[in-house]
Design a protein that fits this description.
two-stranded parallel ribbon
Length: 133
C-alpha cells in the first residue's frame, strides 16, 4: 500500500457511506499515512439537489454536472460509494480517481477494510440511468 493516500467517501452524515453518489450531500475526505488516519475533513458536494430538474438528467449538461460534483475531490486517489451511475463512474476514472462501490455501511468499516487490503469493489452497484453519450 502507498505510504500516503487520500480517500473520499460520499456521505450525508459523516459516518455512513451514501448509497447513491449523485444524491449525497458531502464528501468525507480521509488521509491515511502508513495505514493511520492523519486527517478527516467534510467537504460540501454538489449533487442532484444542486441542479434544476431540467438540467439534472439532461445529457447536454451531464459532463459539466459530473465535473462540478467531482471537483472538490480531485486531490483524492480513491472515492468510495455504495452506488453510482455509469456516467459519474466514467468521469471519476477519467479524472484519475479510482471509484470503489462497496457493500459496507460505514466509513470506519471501509477505512479499516482498505487498510487491510480487503476493500472490494462490487460492480453490481454500478447502475445505468439510461444516459447515452
Amino acid at each position: 500500500m502507498e505510504k500516503y493516500i487520500t480517500l473520499a467517501f460520499v456521505t450525508d452524515d459523516g459516518w455512513t457511506i451514501s448509497s447513491h453518489f449523485g444524491r449525497a450531500l458531502y464528501y468525507e475526505v480521509i488521509t491515511l499515512e502508513n495505514g493511520a488516519i492523519t486527517s478527516r475533513e467534510r467537504r460540501p458536494k454538489a449533487g442532484h439537489h444542486t441542479f434544476t430538474p431540467e438540467t439534472a438528467h439532461d445529457p447536454e449538461h451531464l459532463d459539466a454536472k459530473h465535473a462540478t460534483m467531482v471537483s472538490p475531490v480531485l486531490d483524492c486517489s480513491v472515492l468510495v460509494a455504495r452506488g453510482m451511475g455509469s456516467g459519474a463512474h466514467t468521469h471519476l476514472v477519467s479524472a484519475g480517481i479510482t471509484p470503489v462501490l462497496t457493500d459496507l455501511q460505514t466509513i470506519d468499516e471501509a477505512v479499516a477494510a482498505f487498510v487491510k487490503g480487503s476493500l472490494t469493489n462490487n460492480a453490481s452497484r454500478l447502475h445505468d440511468h439510461g444516459h447515452h453519450h
